[in-house]
Every structure is written in C-alpha cells, then in structure tokens.
Records
---
Amino acid sequence: MHIPDGILPASIIVAGYATTGGVTWYSLRQIKRDKNPQANIPKASLLTAAFFVASWIHIPVPPVSVHLILNGLLGTILGYYAFPAILIGLFFQAVMFQHGGLSTLGVNATMFGIPAILAYHLFRLCHKVGKNNSVWTGMFAFLSGAGGLGLSVVIFFLLVITNIPANIDAAMERNVIYGLVLAHIPLMLIEGAFTAAVTLFLMRVKPELLKQ
Amino acid sequence: MNSQWKTIIPFVVISVFGASTKAIAHGVRMQARETQAIEVNAEYDNGEPMAEAQVTVYAPNDPATPWLEGTTDNNGNFVFAPDSSQSGNWSIQVRQAGHGSIVNIPVEGNQAQAGGNGTTEAESSVSGVANTRTNFTPLQTILMGATGVWGFIGTALFFMRGNKSNSELRRSESQR
C-alpha cells in the first residue's frame, strides 16, 4: 500500500513532507517529556525492525495480495515513538527495496504514522475507562490495531482516488482501487488480532512495556 | 502462331502479378514488415505480474502528452512499436490502483533518404534495456534485510546498555 514515486502531484508530495516534519517535531517533543526518553528506544527499535520486514509478508486475498503493515501495532505499543519508528522504517524500505519512494516518504509517513498515534490514544482509552482486565485490553488492542490500519487505508484511498491522471481510464482505475481497498478488510482483522495477541502477551510477561 | 500466344500469355500474366509482394483480394490490402518494438513487463515486487494495468507511452518530442495508451496482458506484458523518426528517451508509465512506475528507454532513430522516389525511410534501434527493478537474487535480498534488521537490533542493544546505568531510575519507576 506504499505510494511509489511518480503517482502523486508535487503539491501533495510537498504537503506530505510538511505534515511529516510537523508531526515528527511534535512526537519528539512528547518523547522528550518522558522522564527517561531513552528507556523506550530499545522497544521502538525492535518494533521498527518488525515494521521494516512486515512488508515482505504477503497475504493473498484473491484476486490481489496485500502485505502486513503493522502501523496499528506500533502505535498501540510505542505511543509517540511510533511516528519516528515508522518514518525510519519507511526510509529503509524505500532505499533498500524500492518499496514506496523517497519523494513520497512524507506522504507515506503521514499515511501510516498519524493513524498509529491515533491508535495509541484509542488504546489509552481502555485505561481511562478503568477497565484493566485482559478482555477489555485485548478488545481495545484489537480495535487499535485494526483501526490504525483502517484509517491508513482510508487516507490511501482518498489520495489515489482524487489523483487519477486525466489520460488514463478513470473507471477502470477506480475499480482496481476499490478492489485493493476491500482486500485490506481481512488484513485489518489479521492485524487487529495480532495486535491483541502481542499486547496480551506483553501484559502477562512484561507489563511495564505497555506503560507509557 | 495463335496457339503459341495462348501458351505464352498465362506465363506473362503470372510473372507480372507474381512480382508484387502485396496480397490483394476483395478490397483488402495487407502489408507486413519487420519493425523494432519495445516490450514492457511490469510486475509487483512480490513477483506477481501487473495484469491489465494501464500503460501510457510518452514520445521523446512531447513528454507531456500521451503518445499511446493501452493495458498490459495477464502476464503484465505490453508491446508497442515506437515511431522510428523520433529518437530520444521514450517514457513508459504503468499504473494500477495507485501503484506503478515510470521507465525511460532510449531509442536511436536513423533517418535516411531512400533516393529517387522521395520517401523517407527510417530505421531505429532500441539501445539496451531499461529497468526499474533491482535485480537482486533472493539471497541478496535476505542478506540486505538481515543487515537492516541487525542495525535495528544493534540500536536496541546499544540503548539497553545505556539503561543499565539507569537501573535505579527504572526500579523506582517500576515500584510506582
């Protein structure tokens, strides 16, 4: 679902970089407020590695195939660390495997990173409503994992559907975009379940990792 | 004399029409000739062909206006013959569902006057292969991925080492 070079107009690419710059600054400011900002870096770094290789794991949803993204998982577990983690992961994906593109790095980081931060806030609601048992945690983690990806898919959909060049067959392009977006619904369920499983596992073996 | 002509005339007719290379029958005129073509193959990075993706070809002399539009076949292939009078970089864009790529392929055109009858014949040659894919073997890809992952793990280990000196801080945090 990464947007490659040459698909979007220059104005959106610039806007993507501007948004990414702003959100990165805001995320780093939030991270700096931590008592020990370095304490969460090992966790963030390991999840960046997971994000980096997740795009290799393809899941066939006939007639297309989709790949894992895991931005909801990163948001749920890392909080504001998720945005720089996703930015770094996307940079290496673009440079090493031409997955996405350097010109669209800003757009892709916005598309995956902002939903990740929102997924984190959704997951935090679980503590706010005072439900700390594993059923509620699992449910909120599922919603965060699935919702983070779902919001990214919506942003992707809006970006590509409003930027179909005039010279190509718009109806045909729209149909394949609908197909690709619908194929991400099973992936949302998979990533939601995966996020819930990881969160419940961490809650049992190392609950301090979930505390922000 | 008369019988002699009867045997010669069919041979004359056959030899006149036989010299023509065009097939003429009931108003259909066909001509086949060899030409230079560009073959495009597009696939996703997991190796799946981009079937029925939209292809737009831009000629070197007008890179803003599409010169040809079409779709790839089920194997992600698209073949077209460039206008041999235009030399330079032909741009081919393949796009499907917000994914796609642009490839530039240089075509050298040789315009030569075929003397006498005033027509211009042009020959072109496609020089080389243009590729947007990085042709890494699976082993190279795995190695690159592994080095990337090791970089992240190394970062994690480095900052965990730093954390040990702050273990007291962590302990006080976990007690709270």
---
Amino acid sequence: MKNRIYTLLIFLILITLYGCGEITTVDDGTVVIYPTPTPTPTYTFEPTSTPIPTSTSIPIDSNNGVKIIGKITYDRVHVKSSGTGLNYNNITRDSARGVTVKLVKNSCTSNDILKTTSTNDSGDYQFLNLTPTQNVRICVYAKLEKRGIGGYDVEVVDNTNNSAIYTMQSSLFNIGEDSTRRNLNASSGWGGYGYNRARTSAPFAILDSIYTAIKKVKTADSSAIFPKLKVNWSVRNVPSGGGSESELRDGFILTSHYNGDGNLYILGDENSDTDEFDNHIIIHEWGHYFEDKFSRSDSIGGSHGEGDKLDIRVAFGEGWGNAWSAIATDNPIYFDTQGFMQSDGFSMNIESGNSAVKGYFSEDSIQNILYDLYDSHNDGADRLSLGFKPIYNTLVGFQKNTKAFTSIFTFITGLQEENISEKDKINDILSSENIRPIVDIYGSSQANLYTSSTSDICTTGENGTFNKLNNHKYIKFTIDSSRNYIISVVQNNGSMSDPDFGVYKTSPFKHLGDSDNTTYKIESARYSLDSGDYLLDISDYNGQTYACFDININ
Amino acid sequence: MRKKLILNAIIMVGLTGNILADSNSTVDNNRTVKGTTIGKYQKPGAPIDITYRSTRVKLNEPSDINISFSTPLKSGEMDVDINIDKDLKVIGEAYNKITYSLSPNQKEYNLNLRVSSSKNGLYYIRLLTKINGVNGIKTRAFAVPVYIGNGKLQKKSHQLVMKALGGENLSISKAEESVEVIK
C-alpha cells in the first residue's frame, strides 16, 4: 500500500512539474475547459473617444416584461483618404448587421441557451419576457444565419485553431426585475503601435462586408438562397505557402482567395498583409463564391496583374471580381492595405482608371466595362445605367448555361439578347476598351481561340505562361456515337513541348477531366464520351514560345 | 516491490523527460523549405511572383534564405521593403529596402540573406514589393518562413479557444460593454 502511495506521489509531482502553466491552446487540438462561473458586478467599458451609442431603434414596450435590449457594433478601421494604408485615427463603431446573438447560462460553451436572436440592420437585438436568472451572459457569434427563402449561412472561423467560430462575450451578470440596455462592441485590438489585444472586430468586419454583398444580390433577387460559406481568417494567415490542406490549417494561405469549395480564406498577418478591413477584397473573393454557386466560372486561376494579356476565362473572372466589389459597395475605389503597421498598399479606381492594356483579354477592360454597364454615372462612351439586375440575370442564366468557356464574349452575348434595345450603347462601351461588337459566344471575328479544325493548332508563350492569352486553344468537336475514345495531342513542330488537355461536355456544361502527364511531345488518354458537343482545351505545360499540335479523336 | 517502484519512477521520468524535451527540442536534420507563387492564384496587385528557399536550422545556426522575384515588366523599378522578425538576427549586411531596375534581359531578381536565432520558433521575413504602373503604384506582400529549432510559431493568441457542449469549437474574446437600466 505504501508503495502505491509513493508511486502516485511521484506521478503527481512529475505531472505538476510539466503541467503547470496558463491555459493555452495546444497545437493539435483545442483545450476542453468548463470554467467555474464567477458572477461579476456590472461591467463598465473602457472609455474611448467614440462612446458606444446608448440609443436604440427598438421601441421600449412595457408589455414585454423584463427585457434586455441593445446594439452590437464592431470597430471598423478605415483606409486613409489617399487610399494607401489603414488610418487608426479613423475608427468607427459600425453596426454588426444580421449576426447571431444568444443569451446563455454561465458560458458561451453552455448548452443552456435561454434566447437566440439576430441583430437587425441597425445592429439592434432584443431579448423579451425574461425571468430573473443568475449567471447569464450574452454571446455574439461571427455568424449570419437565416433559413428559408432568401436565406444564408455564413460563419467566420479560425482555420489555425480547428475552425473555432469567433465569438464575443459579455461579462457574467444576473437578470433581475429591471430591464437593461446592454451594448456590446468588438474592439480592433489596436494599441497604438501594434495589435496588443484580441482583434475581436476583424471577423465581424469581414462578416459585414459579406452582408453588404448578400444585400446587393437580393436587390436583384430577393428570394436568392445562399449556400453555406465558411470564411477562414486568423492572425496567423500569411501570404506564403502552396495551398495544401495542411498548409491552410497552419495559416499558409498564400493570398486571400476562394477555394472553389465553399471556403474563403482571408489574410490576417499584421505588418505584412491584413485584409479584414479591405472590404473590396472580401467582396471580390466573395464574387468568386457567387460565380461558383449562382453562375459559372471556367477560370483556370493563376497570377494576374496590370498589363497582363490573360486567358479570356481568367480575364472575365478577375474583372468580374473587381467590378463586383465596386458594384456591391457603390464605391469604385478598390484598396488593399499592406505593409508595416498596415500603413502601405495601393488603390485603384474601377470607374475612371485607365486600362494598362485594352481588350477582351484584359482584366482592367472587363472591370471597366462591367462597372460602366451598372453605374448611373455617364461618362465618355458610357451612356448606360443598367443597374445590377440585368447583370445578375445574365450571370445566373445565359452565362451559367453557355456552351463556350465563360468570358466577356459569352456574357455580352447573353446581356445583349436580353437587352436588345441597349445593344448600341453596350457596343460603345466595348469599343472604348478596344473590343469590337461581339457576334457570338466564341468571339468570332476578333479572337482566334476556338476552332473546329484538329490539325496544326498552335499555342504561344509570348504573353507569358500558364494562364495568359493564347497559352490555351479550344477545339470544338462533336461525338455522334457513345463509346470510348482515345484523344491524342501531338506536337508537329518539334518535341520540346509537354502538351496537356482538358475535356468538357458543353450541354449541360461539364468538365470531364484533365490529361496532364509529364511527357514530351505527346499527351494521350481514353475517355468515355456520349453523343453531343464538346470542347477540348489544349496547352503546353513547358510554355514554348510557339508549339503546334495535331489532335486525334478516335 | 522496491524495484518496481524504482522502475515506475524511471519510466515516468523518462516519459516526462521526453515531453519536456519536445518543447525545447532541436532539429537534428537540416531541411530545405521551398515555395513559389508562380502559377498560383493571386488577388489583384503588383505583377510580381516570388520563389524562395530557406533551411531549417538549429538554435544559433545560420539559415540561408534565397529569394527570387520575377515580373513580366521590362522597365521601371521594383522596390522591396524588408521586415524581419525581431528575434531573427541578420548575419552580414542588413537591408530594410532594396530597389531593382527592371530590364528586358533579366528574368529574376535575387535577394539572399543569412539569419539565425537563439530562440526556437517559426519566424518570417516579410516583404512588400512595389511597382509603378499605368494607374500608379501597385504592391504585393509576401512572407518567407524561417524555421529555427522546433520551428513552432511563438505568437500568443489573445483569444480563448473552447469547446462548446454542442461540439463546436469557439474562439472567444471579451466585448467592450455599456450597461444602462431602462426606466
């Protein structure tokens, strides 16, 4: 017996030596904690230069028993008037619209939920007909939730901490006989020379930008239902990495982006690149979610910058994202704050900016065209103010079902079909960006990208590699009889290329697969094809200046 | 029985020793960490890509950092602001800014550094690149990771991560509050 006690003693001493310390998160999972609640007296907030508003738009009704009402706000740090860098002397307390608020017993982790609600468009919430209860807390989740027609489901989580949902909590208090107004604010965490407290407002700022985007879509379609979206933000999200699953969990997200699978990733690394207050960036990336869930994008992604002549799918996708950020906010100034103390960065004017290069392959041209179609400001060649609804209708209708790859050609063809009386004005806007009147979805008569020929199809690396104009060519072909086919792409002007191809059925549009082995000169694969029309997207992985191919489908 | 007690103690010390050692462990093999943005999606910004290599090293051992920038632009200048984590010591000449003159004959613009640290951690060399384009300056930020010792990120979180009884993980922080009794 003595020996057992000694053994236990040794064990406890050793565990204590290791285990003493503050409660922290562990690297490979969360710490499960059920804290013992300690009732605190009524909490008085830190004084700030901008007091939390004490008025609320919810009228006080004495028939609602004991109530708790209030306003949920978050600190939004604004960009400097120059458009470069965040201005920490210009922080406003903005309403946290549509967020989930709960009244719980003891802790936000508790299952004992007394009331649940959402804030309205002024950030107001209310809990009515309450009974005296001890040890309660208000929990505000970085979550937008609405069921049914016009519904949405968005949450902001920490991808570096097991997707923990960001939550802001009040102090513990007792519900007595008196009604109270309890306003809660999510602070920025800025301490003057850096972030020295929790950046509580960041997830709510991101959420509010997304709420703006949702509201804009609803102006065109009030019954639109938004599939679930998870937004991944962390102070550890850095502009580094390759995008693998494990890297994303560690914060190596490379850049703010939509991953094509219901997830947004947003940068949060201070003194490098933080995007939580750059609302145009949030909304641009949300625009890719919109394309994915409501419309269609055939963009092959990749890097893109000023002056690039891009693959037409990439040009449209990125131009749409930029234009959409200006449309949703009705603010054509896109900005991205970066650098030490977030004091640097750049901005661009979607309305009046000059295109570094003009044409159907230019991201700048696409964003200018789309914004000019939308806005009510007529200038130069722009004499059109369509608003958002025709653009929305084209994106969710014609663009979604088009038999060609999504581009300015497909979009304008669809838009003009539905708005035939505006055709000339649309052509004027196109002309200002060096795009001739669009005759069909393939850009025939101005872009030599599609062909029905299967011999001597040439790609070029003269505009850059991977996702630039003419890196890819598109072959239209028809299958009459359903069976297996071998598709071969063979270089006929040398042997240094590495041909790859993708196969697409066009109606309904579906990406069937890619063949991308690392082999010189030839790529070949077997596909089971039903009768119908197809597109073959061929490219040279080695980016040869000029590579020509013969295609065989038999 | 006494032998069993001693054996238990030895086993427990051994286990605990492993646990403690893990938090201060040194890296036995050098490993190269590589990354590139070429071909990867990027949000709008300066048309600049980066390729980097850094070596994982032990405490106080020098880590070689090789960085290469590429851009399709053939003229003008590219500025790079360099911000190195404070616990990283630069060996040799230190810069906080470099300017490259862009040329049609040059495809890559290189930056080589040597750093070390006496503390375990995952550190970053933060780079802000700038190019003057048609519509003014465009920028792009990059972060090159440097692994020293156990290579674990030392940044403290100000949030408390807890597991709700419903199963969700929550990252909780305190609100600023005002309270008023309604008459």
